[in-house]
Batch of 2 targets.
Target 1
Amino acid sequence: PLNSVVFGDGLFVACNFGTVFASKDGEHWTRTDYTSPYGVNSLAFGQGKFVAIGYGVVAASTNGVTWPAAKRIGNDNLAAIAYGNGVFLAVDSSGRRGIRSEDGESWEILSFAADAGPVGGVRSIGFGNGTFLGVPWSGGETVHASGDGRQWTSVPSPFPDTRNIGFGNETLVA
């Protein structure tokens, strides 16, 4: 099964735990040269770059097909990534740490206080209408909201038992 799919610059890029695939039409897929012993959990597109995250690693590609070696960022299992407000934001599965970058290359490591981070961990993250939304692993009736990825608040979910979230064409889908 696929973990994540993004679209940018006329290309679909998708991943499962250890492989990244690319497609121009969404029907015919080719395996890219992405390699990392730490896998890939999620993808985002912004500023003309595809960014992949995995278990403590991150890599950025300008074309979605050719990837540099994944860069080690720590030991956290980076679970989900999104792009918005000029920022790439990834969070780990514990909801206690994250990484943030304005260029997809240099990363700031974030640590969240018990009452400031996306408590309960994050399964999925999306960006729309000026806000990052993180969906907890447990699903439920709340999601976590942040404008900058540094400060988070819990807000009621627009859908009961939300498990995944995405934005597109100014529409929230969960």
Target 2
Amino acid sequence: NNKDNEKILSEWHYLLIRELVVLPDFEPTGEYISEKLQKLIKPHEGEKALRFLIEAGFLKEESGRWKILDPVLDTGDTIFTDELIKKYHSQNLKIWSENLNLWKSKGLEMGLLNLSLPASKIPELKEKMRNFQDHILGWLQNEPAAHSVVQIGVYRIPHSVAETSTRRDTRRRS
């Protein structure tokens, strides 16, 4: 259901909670979820999110074990609105920036690349970034022994605008 796919991106913690269910000690309680997410959400928010994930068909309990029904939620270029994707990422970036000092350095891996490249390479860079994400997902998709949940953010932020030959000449003529 497209509305449910949009709703799962409406709150930064929904997809993280979806991933928590594969942990061997998972408990379907708000207290457990809040604790695992380092109290970044309240127990009632965890319960609400879990209820949504179950009712929308993202999670299912089967023989006493919880399962993610569709392990990959592709946000693609045309699947969701640009506004929804930006809101989702903004929420996550805000949580990260507000809590960076909360997380132990040992558990963090941070890298930031600043690149100069020709405009003609941007589509290739975008494809490489998507391929990297697909590679990571495929590498871990059937991993039976998950013990933690992490987020990896992959961003290309255009900090400068490419100049083109059609640039308007703003010099004063005499």
